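Our consortium's second objective concerns turning raw sequence data into structural hypotheses that experimental partners can test. To show how far this objective has progressed, the report includes one record in full. It was chosen at random from the queue rather than selected for favorable results. The single chain below, 124 residues long, was entered without modification.
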Amino acid sequence: MYEWFQSLTGAWGRPLLDWYLANSWVNLPLIGYGIFLLLAWRNYDLIEQRLVDSWLAQAKDKKGKAKLPSQPETDWDAAVAGLSYPFLAQRGYLWLHKNTAENAAKIINLHRVRTRAEWRLERM
């Protein structure tokens, strides 16, 4: 593996790999940040799911078929309430945000929430 990496990187690869092997502690912050990020993504999914459930509760039944309102009410405070992890991150992004209603309103994709709510309505 060492020779393969060196053949790919050329002259600067050997010093880089030597430094990495001597300082393998650098993995700890990377893995730690990865864990923080996974938990923040989980919060994003939980908030999104709470919004879907809230919108489904607002769906009105018309002739046996429920339909979402054109402008469903979005209670951001209720969506973020009770989450124990203090950070939030959009799926696929690496930047952490503080878990507040304002930040959730900025980064949650309401089009995706509506699509998920409509998909669940079709299966009810």
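The partners drew two points from this record. The first strand starts at residue 60 and ends at 62. The chain is about 60% helix and 10% strand. Both points have been shared with the crystallography group to help prioritize constructs.
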